[in-house]
């Protein structure tokens, strides 16, 4: 609510309270988590900001994150999760990846209007080898051959 005070030489006045409401949700904007590459089994925080047509951040808007592809979960759910945007307009969900190499596609959308949506892509790739382990095999069919003799 806003009070407006106006004045000119010799004349002053004050309005009653004016309530300013945000417009309907219209835009969903990437904040973080898109086009990232991870080692399988790691998690990726996906964040979006919801705004109205005047770029005002909107709080308490329901945003749905939907897992479209990949063998993982969103906040522990295998299909989708709905979260509310914070005072800053930020809504977030965590993509939990499996232990396998995969490509994950997640869509975030505004539940009330579906005016806008964003698609996240997260790819998991094999990590570096941390160690090797060799275990000797005792097998009667194995024999040692001196170098150079076949």
What does this protein structure show overall?
This protein is mainly β and 150 residues long. The chain has a domain at 25-124: Immunoglobulin-like. The protein has no helices and eleven strands. The protein has strands spanning 2-8, 11-18, 25-32, 36-38, 43-52, 62-69, 73-74, 80-84, 90-96, 103-110, 117-124. The strands form three sheets. The protein has a five-stranded mixed sheet with strand order 4-11-10-6-8, with no helix packed on it. Strands 3-5-9-7 form a four-stranded antiparallel sheet, with no helix packed on it. The mean pLDDT is 86.
Name of the CATH homologous superfamily of one domain: Immunoglobulins
**What's the gyration radius in Å?**
28 Å
Q: pLDDT below 50 for ≥5 consecutive residues: which ranges?
A: none
List the secondary-structure elements in sequence, H or E.
EEEEEEEEEEE
Under the CATH scheme, the architecture of one domain is Sandwich
Q: Do you know the CATH topology of one domain?
A: Immunoglobulin-like
Main β-sheet description:
5 strands, mixed
Strand content: over 45%
Strand line-up across the major sheet: 4-11-10-6-8
Return the average pLDDT rounded to an integer: 86
**H/I helix tally:** 0
What is the CATH class designation of one domain? Mainly Beta
């Amino acid at each position: 609510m806003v009070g407006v005070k106006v004045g000119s030489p010799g004349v002053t006045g004050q309005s009653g309270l004016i309530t300013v409401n945000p417009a309907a949700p219209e835009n969903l904007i990437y904040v973080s988590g898109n086009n990232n590459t991870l080692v399988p089994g790691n998690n990726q925080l996906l964040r979006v900001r919801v705004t109205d047509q005047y770029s005002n951040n909107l709080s308490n808007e329901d945003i749905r994150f939907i897992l479209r592809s990949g063998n993982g979960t969103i906040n522990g759910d295998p299909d989708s999760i709905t979260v509310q945007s914070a005072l800053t307009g930020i809504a977030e969900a965590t993509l939990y990846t499996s232990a396998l190499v995969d490509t994950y596609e997640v869509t975030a959308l505004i539940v009330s209007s579906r005016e806008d949506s964003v698609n996240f892509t997260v790819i998991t790739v094999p990590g570096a080898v941390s160690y090797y382990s060799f275990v000797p095999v005792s097998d009667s069919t194995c024999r040692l051959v001196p170098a150079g003799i076949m």
